Structures are given as C-alpha cells and as structure tokens.
Amino acid sequence: MTLDKALPRDHAATVEFQGLRRKFGSTVALDGLDLAVRPGELLALLGPSGCGKTTALRMLAGFEHPDSGEVLVDGEDVTRVPAHRRDAGMVFQSVVTGALSPWPDVAGNDWPSDHAAVITTFAVLHED
Fold this sequence. Notes:
Elements: E1 15-24, E2 27-37, H1 53-61, E3 68-73, E4 76-77, E5 88-97, E6 116-124
Antiparallel strand pairs: 1-2, 1-3, 3-4, 5-6
C-alpha cells in the first residue's frame, strides 16, 4: 500500500534492514531480517509477542543495536549512529484491546485476551 499524499516524497526516507539479528540471552528476537520500505509505502509488522517487531523499530530509532546486520536510511548505514543523531520519531507501544475484533464478548462485556494488538508508530524523515 502506498500513501502518495501522506508525506511529500522529498521528506520521506527509504529504510532498509539487512540481515538483522538480535538475541536476548537464549531468545532470538530477530534472525536475519531483510526488509525495505520506500517513501510512500505503509508497512504493518504483525506477529505474536516477542517475535521482534518492536526490537526492529528500536534498532531503527537507535535505541537497540543488532548483534549483526545493518540498518540503512536512504542508503546510509546508521546502525551505530546514536539515537539523538537520527531524524526519527517513535511512539512506544500500547496495547489496544479488541483491535482485531470490533465486538466485545457480550456476556462479560470484555474483550477476549487473544484479540489484543500492540501498536507502535514510527516515522523517519530526512532533511535536505
């Protein structure tokens, strides 16, 4: 999906993950993630808790560093660039209960626990 009018292309950036790998102890959060997002594209990272969605975005923001692999913004390797030196913004995750199903459980007026979604918003801008 593309968002042609959401952001002028001259202010949007191409983001690439090349072979990103990250372990936390014995848990592998990312295992060779390869992904490219071009200006105007909209991307949703979906998966169960602990599969690496937020870890990948934290690497893009500079809050986390991969064990191996590279993060590129407009072709420039920013893998080791500190967070405060990146033109990026991240709104941390929040659980949105019932986001995947529009109707609560009628009997308890409560959302089933398997219908919760975690949403993290991220934007990368580049200045000329």
